[in-house]
Design goal:
60% helix, 5 helices, single chain, mainly alpha, 121 residues, two-stranded antiparallel sheet
């Protein structure tokens, strides 16, 4: 049985798009945190530290994840805010810098994927 190359091609497209961006210089946990915060907030969900540290899909201990969040905030990728739901919760949102970079990566992925699909058709 021959392997279908779609999985490998998609993986290569994702890796290349992230690698050519400023995300490529980040550690995998930081990239995963940015993606999680972006996906959650774009779905209308409020994200706080506990949502990140308690997420089993994000690898690393809670202490490591908090350090990554702090580094992302210091580097201007994440912005902390106050919750509209609970006054003691500190929320996490993507900064304008993070939104621009993630949108650019998404655009590159869409363009590369379109090329791949045209070749396979």
């Amino acid at each position: 049985m021959e392997l279908n190359n779609t999985l490998f091609a998609l993986s290569n497209i994702l890796d290349a798009a992230e690698g050519r961006s400023r995300l490529g210089g980040m550690d995998p946990e930081s990239r995963a945190i940015l993606k999680f915060v972006g996906a959650s907030t774009s779905a209308g969900q409020e994200v706080c530290m506990k949502d990140v540290t308690g997420n089993p899909l994000l690898h690393g201990s809670p202490v490591t994840l908090v350090k990554r969040i702090q580094s992302l905030c210091e580097a201007g990728w994440l912005v902390q805010g106050t919750s509209a739901i609970h006054h003691r919760r500190v929320t996490l949102n993507l900064s304008p810098k993070a939104r621009r970079e993630l949108n650019a990566v998404s655009s590159r992925i869409e363009a590369e994927l379109a090329l791949f699909l045209r070749r396979e058709a």
